[in-house]
Amino acid sequence: MPGVLGPLRPEHLASSRRAHPPDGTPMSCRICCVGSIHMDLVVRAPRFPECGEILMGGEFERYPGGKGASQAVAAGRMGAQVRMVGCLGDDSWGAAMRGVLTVEGVDIQHVRTDEKHATGVAVVTVVPGGEHSIVVAPGANAHLMPDDLDQASGAIAEADVLIVQAEIPVETNLRAMEIAKNSNTAVVFNAAPAVGLDLELLKRVDLLVVNCAEARRLVGDDEGEVAPTGLARRLASYGPDRVVITLASEGAIHFNGQEMESFEAFEVECVDSTAAGDAFVGALAVLRSEGARLMDAVRYACGAGSLAAGTAGAIPSLPTRDEVDALVKPRKQATT
Prior knowledge:
This protein is of the alpha/beta class. Helix content is 33%, strand content 23%. The protein contains 11 helices and 13 strands. Strands 5-4-1-8-9-10-11-12-13 form a 9-stranded mixed beta sheet, with helices on both faces. A 4-stranded mixed beta sheet has the order 3-2-6-7. It is globular and about 50 Å long. The protein starts with 9 loop residues before the first helix and ends with a helix. Mean pLDDT is 88; it is low at 1-7, 9-16 and 18-26.
């Protein structure tokens, strides 16, 4: 039963790092995030276990997470007005996640409670240096249905940007994208996890965001023979208008169908990379919805992702706009 290990500590229910946007930051940016909501069970280990091995780990923590919830909070901390569409179990962890999202200012009117299925869980192993592996038990997330999207169509239609990921059913994502396209709402798709993903989704995407490993899975580059720039070109051939591939400590690349741009990473000590990609996606979506040039938005997103990797946990690690500004603006000034 979820919750049998006792309640989350207060600092895990809602991060004290949340801050209102700085003076002058527009609040007209509207984001709708359709996706997963998990409780993350995190174990620190000296290394990843081998097949069949029992490995003694270290600290155990629980953090609010899920790619959908994390990206929604990431966008909110960048100053956006955010609506979340998702599904939680009727259990203590579901109640805790509702509390997290509410305190973060995310509108959860369209987060449904499923009485038959438990709140989703992600089992995370973090090793020294911040690398991680994740196994997801989707629970109620697997029961977010297209009908739920019809109920939430107004939230998508009124948004500047729709953010979706691949931790919910494909048919649900297709319906969300269809509503967005019919409403002129831009679609940002974080194709993670990439295993078994229906490539038909990519035809409805304005901006595709993946890491290098996910890009290789999508194009079938099992041997790792294709350079990241080649991966971006292949992914663009599947339909998305623009492709961004994140490269961890090497930064990111962006391909708009004609030109390829590279972006350097920001040097931050990596503690836990679990939500670095979610911070990247949230920041990228907000900056684009505010009208920033995509090259500026990607550079800013690199800063957000770097900062998230410097703190443990998913949602607790997501940086505020002030924090990203403090990291990114000095470099931008130095290069101009």
